[in-house]
Known about the structure:
The chain is α+β, with helices and mostly antiparallel strands and about 400 residues long. The protein folds into two domains: about 5-210 and about 385-390, Ribosomal Protein S5, domain 2; about 210-385, Alpha-Beta Plaits, CATH 3.30.70. The chain has eleven helices and 14 strands. The strands form three sheets. Strands 6-5-7-4-2-14 form a six-stranded mixed sheet, sandwiched between helices. A five-stranded mixed sheet has the order 1-13-10-12-11. A hairpin with a 4-residue loop joins β8 and β9 (about 205-210). It is globular and about 60 Å long.
Amino acid sequence: MSLVRTPAEIDVDAVVARFRELYDAEPDGVWAAPGRVNLIGEHTDYNGGFVLPIALAQHTVAAVRQRADDTVRVASATVDGGVPVTVELPGVTEGGEYGWAAYPVGVGWAAAQRELPVTGLDIALDSNVPVGAGLSSSAALSCVTARAWSDLLGWDLDDETVADLGRDAENKIAGAPTGLMDQLASVCGRAAHAMQIDTRAVTIEQIPFDLPACGLSLLVIDSHTEHTHTTGEYAERRHSCQEAALRLGVRELRDVPLESLATTLDKLPPLLRRRARHVVTDSARVEQVAQLLTSGDDPRRIGPLLSESHASMRDDFEITAPSVDALQEAALAAGAHGARMTGGGFGGCVIALVDKQQAEPVAQACVAAAADGGFATPTVFEAVASGGAARLR
Length: 393
């Protein structure tokens, strides 16, 4: 039996049937928004730097109906036994306790802050984006809601604004201090492309990323070491970056020149020096990877940059975990061209760039390394660059 698994597709008809059962009505439509994998550029997004994500084939699917009042009822097939959560939109405030429903109802709050017309919704959800793996299951949830609300109420928003509604929901209502990368990737993904995102200018350049055409696979190796953005560790890294920028007299770490990095960072105490060095060098690696991919060069050449990024996250930013490091090392030893942790850190997934025929041996090596280290058994699937949030029917 192959260890490289394909996650089960979501049965859209079943989501619609579940909606009818829950709400005794027909949905107005069905929408989907994907999770994402970031190829390179970690913790650079809230520092004004560059990131390079792809949208995944794994999605959150939502059957949605507009209501005439201010009530949101939302049920997920994967949470709380599928029982709907009911929230009154006028009562949604920063700091409120809404559980997982903070992500969809936060979108309504964010829209109201922009003085957009907002009514309630009935929502039935299902998802095959792994939760707690650093693959932005939360962004898929907020962005599918934002896309559905925008379409139903005729907000006529560009993709960047739809993504920004999702970010506000996560930052201000769910309390997760993410940058904008996750939501932009979920909304703006394109098949067979990665997105080079300038997070300061909020511009996206679509970069060719058709690995199957080159005999390659991008494996996602889920360590099953739980990852969460709401921990104090994530917030500490963000604060350290802000402190480093302040001490260096720059707006954001994006503004620290790579050419004089060593001299510039000598002005910082050791901890802030390491944090800043990771951000500046990883943002530069994004530009290097994007240049290689657009040049028509062999994509295998990006492998060493992926591995350099992992070393930087491990040694300078200190956001990897022993289980993740073991998987990264095992993937390289088994023949991966490059491998790195992806996501906010402290668990989650490793991505590995491999020749197609090496996918299974690399997966086997990672499972064996986890067993040897006493870690949870990882699961492995192939990441395929896919399209962004859209209406399905």
